[in-house]
Amino acid sequence: MGTGPLLLTTLEPLVVALREDGYRVVGPTVRDGTVGLDELESADELPYGWGVDVEPGGYRLRRRADGAAFAHAASPRSWKSYLHPPRRPLWTARRDEPGGPVAREPEEEASRLALLGVRACDLRAIAVLDRVLTVPGGRYARRREQIFVVAVNCTEPAATCFCAATGSGPAARAGFDLALTELTGPDGLRYLAEAGSERGAGLLARLPGTPAGEAARTEARAAVTAAAGRMGRGLPEGDLRDLLVGARTAARWDDVGRRCLTCGNCTMVCPTCFCTSVEDSTDLTGGTARREERWDSCFDVDFSYLHGGPARASAPSRYRQWLSHKLGTWHDQFGESGCVGCGRCIVWCPAGIDITEEMHALAEEVHALAAEEVAS
User: Fold this and answer.
1) Do residues 223 and 191 touch, judged by C-beta distance below 8 A?
2) Residues 253 and 322 in one domain
């Protein structure tokens, strides 16, 4: 990686170079009242000048004066949908096959994707999916090998972001081919571009830019550091796994259960939730059978169905399962937290339930009970 950091004044050459290399470029763009992810044909489709106002259960676009392209909250559609699709065909069988029905796997479409604008929290989420879903020679592994990642260091945290508390950001540290830091000011938009891999360095060497001086690097570092200091949400101090074990019978679960709709929105937008189920179907004539894998959610009452009924029938039990796994027992399975602090579950919860608020309430209740036991 001999190419040093460059200062770019436009991202169009980057998009053009990626497309010339055979990549479909996917990045943020304004669609249907949100900044969502979609295929881009030009850098002009990036959400220049758009920001967002977010709160628990609330999201609204707003205009910005500086024209920044990446000063918005994490998209409701995470990069997970490109790596681990919401619905995936497994096989199809036809009754009229010579010799009888044979289950045939669909041919996988070869698709090289360049993910443009991946924030540090989402890089961490992709690393989690890599650890959980990668099977040598499997579909996820083959799809992952075709991915080129252009990360964006976060300089504008949303009101619901807390990646600094989870250690996921706001700076991109690993897992990318190129990393951009967007700089705004009287000189207009500029992008500090740094390589994170050999193929990233090769692409960077082809881009029209000027070597980044120490002033630009210092400005970029300061902007990212300032972003970490502006996050208004966090998680309780200490071992969250032990906290959740001690909170198993907390009254707070009933409180949140009365508000939770068990709709599963939090798991759908979460970039690390990976649970699936298998669905079988036939056409109207019964001549063709299909099996598909689709996303599932632990908030679905049938998710824990055993002979005789669901193991977790109530809303409090299902919320407790999700939160305890995400921040607690995930450590037992994968050696890390399942939460990256992106804040999506807060914004896209129709009841406005805030995971950080619930964790602080649980911590307060557990600590109060412990103090009562000591006093008695």
Assistant:
1) no
2) yes
